[in-house]
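Crash report, auto-generated. Payload:
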Amino acid sequence: MKGTQLGEFEELVLLIIGVLYPNAYGLKIRIEIMEQTGRKVAIGAVHSALSRLQDKGFVKSQLAEATHERGGRRKRLFQITATGKQAIEKNHELRNSLWNKIPDMALKGLNYGGSF
Amino acid sequence: MGRASDPYRPPALADKILNWLCRDELIEEIRGDLHEFYGMERAEKSALKANWSYWYHMLHFLRPFALKKLLSSNNHNSNNIAMYKNYFLIALRNFRKDKLYSFLNLSGLTIGIASCLMIFLYVRDEYSFDKHHEGYDQIYRVVTDLKLGDREFHRPLAPVVLAEHLTETVPEVEEAARIMVGQFNSVVDLGEKQMQIKNATYATSEVLSVFTIPFIAGDPKGALDDPKTVVMSESMAAHLFPGEDALGKIVTFNSDDFIVKGIYKDMVENGHFKFDFIMSYRYQTSRFQMGWMNINTYTYLKLAKDAAPETVEAKLTEALKTYIAPLTQSTFNVPGDEINANGNHARFYLQALADIHLKSNLDREISVNGSLENVRTISLIGIIILFIAGINFVNLSTARAAIRGKEVGVRKVLGSKRKQLITQFLFESTLYSIGAFLLAIGVVVLMLPYFNQIIGRELTFSLGGTPPLWLIMTVSAILLGLGAGSYPAFVLSSFNPGKTLKGQTQFKTGKSWLRSSLVVLQFSISTTLIVVTLVVNNQLSYVMDKSLGFDKDNLITLDIMDLNRYDRNEEVLKNELESKPNIESYSRSGFVPVSGSRREFFLEKLGEGAAKESISVQSWPVNETYIPTQGMTIKAGRNFSKEFASDTTGLILNETAAKNLQLADPIGANLSLKAGGESYAMRVIGIVEDFHFASMKESIKPLIFYKGRDPWSISVRFSGSPQEALSTLKTIWENNSGGQPFVADLVSQQYTNQYQKEDQMKGLVNAFSVLAISVAILGLVGLATFMTEQRRKEMGIRKVLGAKPSQLFAGLLRNFTVPIAISCILAIPVSYLAANSWLSEYVYRISLSPLFFIGASLLMILLAWLTVSFQSLKVARSNPTENLRYE
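Recovered output after restart:
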């Protein structure tokens, strides 16, 4: 099913939501991504990914109480759902099992650009 | 927006755009994030940087997930389709209700679109030239441009050896193809039979690979490497060897046997050359000495895929310095280091293959090229016609506003929004325009043969092409519908339902300044077109009828293909010709004043003192029968004569040559003629009246006759009908020319052919001016009908109160005369400038007399009166009771 695939960026956002629990919202997620990975991301891109994740059912969200920050506008806080959790786990397992299947020979000598 | 707790305010415009485009349910969190982010940015950076970054992130929100769904945002019901059905129905009903109006509107648009379509086909064809060759954008032609001393040479030709030099030394040049002698007609022998060949040339094998020339028999690779080889087109093969396989056959040309190495598909019409018979280039190079100063070869270079032509041009300049400069002293009397100084210049440059047809108009083109100017003029006229048709649409639609007003009122009362009404009217006008496009297709299919006749082409109509015509048509139909419909739509939808339903017209039909100015605009354009048409026609008939200094009528030239065969029989042929009553004289010389034979020598006044005048002159070898046969006039002195043996050193000058040499007493003056590096002492024996031997766009240049022989053709002056003379000639020719084909031309025809482009232009301007004016007249008919209709009641009352029909008629007419008169006045300066700029190309031209403007204006007013008076007369003469009754 195409609709439930977890894209690379989406996976990253999903993981960050987990990391930030329970205070994950758009801008904060962006800042965290930039700090953790050094990637430059537009806020819109994060929102777009969040909206896709929500459509796929990997996250749920609710509007927080209004505070005095940001001109009294409410934040939308995101949480990982059970399906979301499954999706990350599946990805995680897949990677691990693939990693273990790589023969040592294939990686020999590839120690970060070194050659004999 | 700014709440008290906001420490910083982000750019308001960005916020507005966001509000406008973003979904309502998302706007709060998005704005929240953006504002918070802005606050953080401002704390660290300058306001400017923060603003930039705010904009950047704002724009990144314009993604599908955040955008409003445009169609469903305002009306959440699915009523749209139903409404469009209704619009369609209403449009159809309105169309049927007022047939005259619908007909006028639709036919105007149809004529406009059909004209544009045909013009589009023509323009697209003009731009398609030579683009069928694979990799055409990598192919360039070398042009030589020299001005050394008195000699000018600007031709699409290059030195024979240049191609080899370039392929050897310039890596960017992948291949270099060579063609010699353009396109010529001649004869070949097949055993005893002599056959005519057309469009022959000499070319290297590379021509077959640089250009896309698909072979149907034989192998193009190296086909023309041997000197006595030939490849020919399918139709030439069928002409020479009907029903046989031409491949491997022998054709005798110039007493040499050529072997047929290949047959190719006939070349397409839209190329700058169309060869039917290609002989090996080596046939020429193997016979003559060829070097850097033999600038006689059309050289085409195929460059590597991403090579810049400029780099190759730089290499060409180097070659010029290395090889040409050392030779200029002996050939042109200009030292090699002065070729780009003292008013001299010498350069090679490259022409892109696709530019040749429209942009290159040099001496010695392979065939007559197109004219960018014609293409531009005609495109402009196409746009003008469509514009006039568009104005009709706007005028007629707004004029009928009063009638549609009630419908608008009812719709508004029933809850239509203005937006919906605009949609309705735009939909309606788009329907009109689509209908007109469909009709126009039919018109184009019917009219294309006539159009082809004017432009001398074989255009066909198909909806394909790149980009496909159907797509262009669909897009333009919608654009035209929206463009022409937008003003009426806004006017009609603006009505106040309260007033229109009570029967008041808000849009004063009689007093629309906009409508009047559009009419003025239409008719100014039409008047301008009439003036230009008149001027073009007059100038061209002036050119055709001007006394040329020789008599181009009743003159036939005959080409001699085979000198040996001809010379053997010349005396018999000549005697037979002269015995016929309808043949007046016979002369052997190929220098027909119109065919563009050119031979330039230098003429020097022999020094009395230091003042040496030297001019370059056209020098034509003629015999004593030439001047009478051509019908030229001896102004002073005498013609060549057999009685004077000294005439071999005699010269006859034209008046311009005598004037330019400033000869006080020309007859008997001693001059020195320089040709081919030699000087000859000559004496002037006569002066011939100036005659035109080039286009009317050039002034008459100095020219001399000397006694000599140009054996390749004869001229015959006849009396009576040309057909009769041609058939007399043909019989004599066939009996005495030793089997040579009969290739005769009427000089008057050749002269006319010189003005082919201008004649084509005239045809186009005439046809489309008539169309443009008829579209404008159609519009006027509509307006006149409508406005007299509006004043019916007024006319009835006036009549009851005692006005005579003639007074009413005059009143109605006056109404229309004023705008037309204004437009005539406005048209004067525009048409003067347009006509003058067209005429300025001609050295010999008509003067722009006021009659053109007066004539065009009178014609326009007359046409308008005719149009209007029919309606006005009907109303003015009608019974007042009928006009007043309907309430």
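Post-recovery validation: Chain A has one domain: 2-101.
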